[in-house]
Amino acid sequence: MWIETVLGYQVIDALSKMILHSLWQGSIIAFLLAIALKVVPESKSSLRFNLSALALFAMLVTALSTFL
After folding, report:
1. Which helix (H) or strand (E) holds 58?
2. Closest to 29 (Cα-Cα) out of 66, 4, 2, 68
3. Does 34 have pLDDT greater than 70?
4. How large is the average pLDDT for residues 36-64?
5. How far apart are CA 54 and CA 59, in angstroms?
6. How many CB atoms lie within 10 A of CB 15?
């Protein structure tokens, strides 16, 4: 395939594993965020926003660390 010549087999393998593992990692992070958002009252909107942003950052970090 043309993509193997462009990226190489090792990169394609790492990308496929990253996608697979990011599904369950993201699910765990989303589950923990849902619990945290249930506990934090709606009046603390800045805290809720920061928790959500932290969860998105955690998803990015876990995906990158899986890739590397």
Report:
1. helix 45-67
2. 66
3. yes
4. 95
5. 9
6. 14
pLDDT at 67 over 90: no
pLDDT band at 61 (very low <50, low <70, confident <90, very high): very high
User: Do the beta carbons of residue 21 and residue 43 sit within 8 Å?
Assistant: no
User: C-alpha angle with apex 19: 30 to 4, nearest 5 degrees?
Assistant: 165
- pLDDT at res. 41: 94
From residue 60, how far is each of 11, 26, 40, 52 by CA, in Å? Answer: 18, 9, 23, 13
Q: Which two tokens stand for residue 21?
A: 């593992």
**Token digits for 50?**
């920061």
